[in-house]
Write a structure and sequence with these properties.
104 residues, globular
């Protein structure tokens, strides 16, 4: 019997990048293969199952319900084709011209 709960629907996922110890990385992928689940699901379930057993953390978290994860910055997708010039064009002003090229 596996430690991981059956998959549930309706969760909101965010991308998170991290580095793992080589052995943990291999074990994570092996366990995902054992369950026939994806690695993201296994990692989320491991975090939930371990942290819900920590009573001291659960008590602390109930008292500290503020968000601790950093806010994600959402970048707008860049268009490959832009309308208009690709570089900003310099605007020539009389004050930018050298005295030798100024007209009278």
């Amino acid at each position: 019997m596996s430690v991981i709960k059956p998959r549930t629907r309706g969760k909101h996922f965010v991308e998170h990048r991290t580095r793992l110890d080589r052995e943990n990385h291999e074990t994570l992928y092996a366990y995902a293969a054992f369950l026939d689940e994806d690695v993201d699901y296994v990692l989320n379930q491991l975090i939930e199952s371990v942290l819900e057993r920590d009573r001291e953390f659960s008590t602390w978290r109930a008292e500290h319900q503020t968000a601790y994860a950093p806010e994600r910055t959402v970048r707008s997708p860049r268009s490959k084709r832009r309308s208009g010039p690709t570089r900003p064009q310099a605007i020539a002003r009389d004050s930018d011209r050298s005295p030798l090229t100024m007209r009278s």
